[in-house]
Amino acid sequence: MRVFADGAKEGSPATLRFRVPSEQADATTIRIEVTLPKGVMPTGGPPASGWTRKEMPSPEGSTQVMWTATAGNELKPDAHRYFDVQVGPLPQKASIAFAVAQTYSDGSVVNWNEPQKGTKEPEFPAPVLVLDAAAAKAELTRQETTVQQAPTATAPPAPAAAAQQEGKGGVPWVSWTVAGAAVVGAGTVVVLRRRGTPRARA
Questions:
Q1: Where is pLDDT greater, at 58 or 15?
Q2: Which residues lie below 8 Å from residue 84, measured CB to CB, with a gap of 6+?
Q3: 53 CB neighbour count, 10 Å cutoff
Q4: Of 16, 125, 4, 27, which is closest to residue 75 (Cα–Cα)?
Q5: pLDDT tens profile 166-202
């Protein structure tokens, strides 16, 4: 699942193109529901041949755009198609993630809504539109980077051992360990779902 928008930039209207693959081996895709995040408002869109289009408010207060296949126009296995929606000025963000629900003819639903954290791709990643590549990459790097400097004290010596050390002119001691910082560079935003049979989600 991917989203494209030629020439999209912050503060300007855009046409979003959602590329939808049908990945079930024994079922067809019959419905696509795209939830636009708050601040992204639909203004129209070209019709998708063989599919009806409907807009409705989402429970979170944003807008959902739903396409439903008419008889004979379902998206067959191993096929894909594009669904376009025009939106008003895009918000001032480095990237925008969308939630997409894909319904199959066997009643199963795959929710493409999992956020990406760092460079590790989730099982069903939300399609992401990148508006500022440098800022988006910096955010992924920040998420991936971990700095650990937590000194850990070892247990103090037993009383007898401590007394023996003092008797020999020594002093009780505490050893410290310091974890090194692990810095992992992140790549660009990944929004492409690997081909395979997805797990159905209710």
A1: 15
A2: 15, 16, 17, 18, 45, 46, 48
A3: 18
A4: 27
A5: 444 443 333 333 333 333 333 333 344 444 445 444 4
